[in-house]
Amino acid sequence: MTESNERTGPAAEDIRAVPVRHYGRWIAGALILFVAVIVIRSVATNPNMQWDVVGDYLFNERILRGLQNTLILTAISMVIGVLGGVLLAVMRMSPNPLTSGAAGVYIWLFRGTPLITQLVIWNYFALFYPRLGIGIPFGPEFVGTNTNSLISPLIAALLGLGLNEAAYMAEIVRGGLLSVDAGQLEAASALGMSRGKTLRRIILPQAMRVIIPPTGNETIAMLKTTSLVVVIGYFELMLSAQQIYAQNYKIAPLLIVAALWYLFMTSVLTLIQTQIERYFARGSSQTAPEKGWAARMFGFGGLRGGVAR
């Protein structure tokens, strides 16, 4: 009887869910918006910025030529760094102590000295070896050339940036390879697969999920690091801006021009990086939800809608 009354009695009052008021977030958002308005207004109305001069030189021929050289340096240096990093990572994980030790010494040497020092050494390599050649030790030289004619400022910049990057990429690749379960290597070995084939077909494709994000960061860092080649006199974006303001004394606007181009290029690389990450994260629980370009670049939205990256 009691059970029947409970079933036929008046329905329980619906529960009203009251959303939590996040007053702290509202206050923080208002403060950030207020500060942003002040900063934007200050930058836009500051006469010392000389925005008219910025517009005049933004697409200047020398600036664009320096920009082109910066992109070339970045691309070739990263190719050298990635290929060298993969080779060094494989050597570092080799069971052969000499191979592993050689890779370890390389990484120790190039990570342990400043990049600007390495650039200067490569530029003045003729002071150490005036002539480079191939021949028998303590015997005749078969092929040789003058070091100054062989190592131009461009070659010195590529050697300094690329070989230094290889040392850092080696640790990134090694970390990615170690992230793959060792049981898969053992299973491939039991099936008769060679070590090289196992690395190409099984280990590297899975390790790419771990390797890609820091590699993207290294590429963006390399884009900005190319400005260091100014010490060896190679013409790139920063040096082109310096040469122009050394003539017209428009220092502030030319620095803004260089900064705007660096911001534009790093923004493009950031968007490319996120797309590559999404490609290699297919089928993973860490796949990020679809977002607009601003959300992907600046992280608008936080944890809402998916996993924060």
Characterise the protein shown here.
The chain is mainly alpha-helical. It has a single domain (50-133, 143-281, 292-297), classed as MetI-like (MetI-like fold, Orthogonal Bundle). Helices cover 69% and strands 4% of the residues. It is built from 13 helices and two strands; from the N terminus they run ααααααββααααααα. The chain has helices at residues 2-8, 23-45, 51-57, 61-92, 97-112, 115-123, 147-150, 153-178, 182-190, 195-225, 237-248, 251-280, 293-298; strands at residues 131-135, 141-146. Strands 1-2 form a two-stranded antiparallel sheet. A hairpin with a 5-residue loop joins β1 and β2 (141-146). α9 (182-190) packs antiparallel against α10 (195-225) and α10 (195-225) packs antiparallel against α12. It is flat.
Could you tell me the CATH topology label. MetI-like fold
Name of the CATH homologous superfamily = MetI-like
- The count of helical stretches stands at 13
Class per helix and strand makeup: mainly alpha
Spans where pLDDT lies below 50 across 5 or more residues: 303-309
Helix proportion of residues, in percent? 55-70%
Order of helices and strands: HHHHHHEEHHHHHHH
The first-level CATH class is given as Mainly Alpha
Mean pLDDT level: 83
Question: Per CATH, which architecture?
Answer: Orthogonal Bundle
Q: Report the strand count.
A: 2
Supply the number of structural domains. Answer: 1
Largest β-sheet summary = 2 strands, antiparallel
Alpha-carbon distance between the two ends: 58 Å
Question: Which strand order does the major sheet show?
Answer: 1-2
Determine the strand fraction and express it as a percent band: under 5%
- Radius of gyration from the CA trace? 28 Å
How would you sum up the global shape? flat
Protein name: ABC transporter permease subunit
InterPro entries: AA_ABC_transptr_permease_3TM, ArtM/GltK/GlnP/TcyL/YhdX-like, MetI-like, MetI-like_sf
Main location: membrane
GO molecular function, one term: transmembrane transporter activity
